[in-house]
Amino acid sequence: MKLPKTINEVQNGLFSKSYTCVDLVGVYLDKISQKDKEINSFLTISEDSAYKKAKAVDSIINDLGEKALDAYPLLGLVVAHKDMFLTKGIRTTAGSTVLNNFIPPYSASIVEKLDETGCITIGKLNQDAWAHGSSGENSDFGDTKNPNNQEYVPGGSSSGSAAAVSIGFCMAATGTDTGGSVRQPASFCGVVGFKPTYGAVSRFGVVAMSSSFDSIGHFTNSVRDSELIFDQTHFVDEKDANLKKSRIDKKAIKKIGIPKEYFTKDVDSEILKNIEEVIKLFKKKGIKFEEISLPHTKYATSVYYIIQPAEVSSNLGRYDGIRYGNTRESFSSEAKRRIILGTYVLSTGYVDKYYKKAMKVRSIIIDDFNKAFSKVDAIISPVSPTVAFKLGEKSSDPLKMYLSDVFTGSANIAGLCGLSIPSGININNLPFGFQLLADKFNESTIFELGKLYEAEISK
Amino acid sequence: MADLKDKDILHIAKLSNLYINNKEIENYKKQLSEVIDYINLLDEVDTKEASDTAHSTDLSNILREDEINASSQLSQEEALLNASRQHNGYFVSKLVIEEKDY
Known about the structure:
- The structure holds 2 protein chains of 2 kinds.
- By secondary structure, chain A is of the alpha/beta class.
- Chain A has helices spanning 7-15, 21-39, 47-64, 68-71, 109-116, 159-167, 183-189, 223-233, 269-284, 300-315, 333-346, 352-373, 398-403, 409-414, 443-457; strands at residues 42-45, 78-82, 120-125, 172-177, 192-195, 215-220, 255-259, 288-292, 378-382, 417-425, 431-438.
- The model of chain B has no long low-confidence stretch (mean pLDDT 91).
- Chain B has helices at 6-15, 22-39, 76-80; strands spanning 86-87, 90-91.
């Protein structure tokens, strides 16, 4: 049986009785058991509960037929969750030895929501521990490989999520995007990666990394699927106090901005050339482009690597080894590095120079985007200056690794929504994509543009 | 060039309740000095007129009624499920405060 790639395909398959949901889950599990030894994308596979849910889905289809979609719009979607997402009764590690035996007594709000809409959870995915990383090499459970070329990283921190969707171990996967951790691995693995506006999707039950940047996103094979999932994850949840149900209605997209600071000689020429083609494609559909400036782009990484470690040092304070988890000796080096950096920038004598200064530069960066969005409806840019790098290439140089977030971090600083859309593949079979950003709560703009691109490409 | 000393790392490790061995002190001193050098870049930015941003939504002080919501509660059993040690329904921790006779 050929695995379907989109929600529409799987629902057609199930309703036409080409296969049952139990068959479908069986095929995914087989594939995982054959190939995941090499890729190392899963940390826990929830086979029993997946089959149980699959049987329930088959009953619903038998009883209600297509009317089932009213109550269960994502019926039949096999998903896996980044191990930052608490799943009741299913081990959740956040990629760290500290939690290697942790069984959550409750599930994250969006895990529950996806479950309620008819999804089948097949397992928990590998990641950089505590979401600290841009390659997958900081996992305490071994590196995940890029399925497109196993000598290369899949990107991070949602490494397992990107890899699993890319190779087809599941149809969608959740991720967290705090500085680019959904968009960058999506680009490196050739799948669609979505970051919602900060405050659009509930963070309840997701292990907190950096609380003013954490965004709950997901990976899919198509932009349309990304939108369908966001339609479900964007709901009012009282358990997350920093949530807004705003959503700007679809509006005419007239102009896309090209920020000159993102198109520098540091970007692979192949990626730049590819974006030129993408721009041409949009121009043919009547969309105008304008060069814009985001003048404080060069300070974004500094702002991010002050505020984020500060928030991390606070959030990781709860892991005391008393109420849950192992003791703090189990933290690996990157977590300790960030806790130390964060504590330093918050400490007496340094808090004004670093943390408070960063909060002010953050306001200035937000202003840059506000000015830009008064002129354009969306912004286009590379996701990363390069395609995936080789395993081991950056892992011993933390600063080099941090600097690779240059094009994704600003969206987290400003709380914007973003989409990474696959658009090319290089000579080493390494994919890459382009990034679309829109102002807060304007997800419909980036979804419309993404769907437009996909429709044109498939002609 | 930022020049973190052993005592800086040890002081911070103590503040954040982390255990660092000697080899780690050497690594962190070097790596963190490099990062701090990099983040000093913010000195270039004129922030005299800028306000602070803590987070990007305009929400603040979102409160709820002080009522028990059963669906948001864990039972004592659930809460103790992952405890390394428990005693009579309590978490067990290391001694923090000692009793002294004065």
